[in-house]
Amino acid sequence: MSKFIVSNVKCAICGKESHQNVVLSTSSFGKPDLDLRPRGMARELLTKELQVCPHCSYSYSDISEKYEGQDAIRLIIEKSDMPQDMASAYVHAARVQEYIKNYKSASLFYLRAAWILDDNNESVLAVQMRKSAARCLEIDVKNTLDCEDAILLVDILRRAGDFDRAIFYINDIGLTEDALYDGILALEKRLVESKDSACHSLDEVGNE
Ligand SMILES: [Zn+2]
Questions:
Q1: Which pLDDT belongs to residue 1?
Q2: Which of 12, 34, 77, 96 has a C-alpha 20 to 30 A away from that of 163?
Q3: Cβ neighbours for 41, distance < 8 A, ≥ 6 positions apart
């Protein structure tokens, strides 16, 4: 079961309190999509994962968390409007994270915005969000050389229709000596070669 509670949370940016959902645990059934979007309750919980401060518009997974860069965050949110829906709240959170050069986190927030837009059949905007997610994740992967993130980047690029960049990273990663990773990359390669930008799941890995 997925569990969350409503708690009084003090915003780390403006210092004011508000009621926020605090996710305690999530569960998912079945294998996720290739971009790791979960199934089951965890998918439903997506819209409750993000906290938005109603006083200053700061959006993050935990708005009470203090860390370096708070002054920079304060500057950027002063110039932005209050998010009107969950997709724009995720975009808002992503922009803050990108601004403070937390590129992996920014990428994941852009991707979550894309998932919500997928569900709303707003495919043009979803592609834009995936391009932003890819832009941030590329910077992160160049720094960390993280294989899992590079594989995620391939799927984000494919879903954004950027097949040339997707194939570049498939070739760049090469063989990983991990059967699951190699299976995902083989599937991605087949999808990219057939210019398939649709959603596919980890269930399909190994069915080549
Ligand atoms: Zn606030």
A1: 56
A2: 96
A3: 1, 2, 26, 27, 28, 29
Give the DSSP H/E element, type plus range, for residue 6: strand 3-10
The mean of the pLDDT values for the chain is: 91
Read off the DSSP letter of residue 206: T
What is the DSSP pairing of strand 51-52 with strand 59-60?
antiparallel
pLDDT at 9: 96
State in Å: Cα 52 to ligand 1 middle: 8
Structure tokens at 159: 């879903």
Digit-coded pLDDT (tens) for 109-166 = 999 999 999 999 999 999 999 999 999 999 999 999 999 999 999 999 999 999 999 9
The predicted model scores a pTM of 0.92
* Residue 125 Cα to ligand 1 middle (Å): 27
Residues 6+ apart with CB under 8 A from 156: 35, 107, 111, 130, 133, 134, 137
Q: Calculate how far, in angstroms, residue 114's C-alpha sits from the geometric centre of ligand 1.
A: 25
Check residue 38 and report its DSSP letter: -
SS3 call for 14: coil
User: What residues flank ion ligand 1 with Cβ within 5 A?
Assistant: 11, 13-14, 53, 55-56, 58
Distance (angstroms) between ligand 1 centre and the Cα of 105 equals 19
Beta carbons within 10 angstroms of residue 148's beta carbon: 14
Distance 13 CA to ligand 1 centre (A): 5
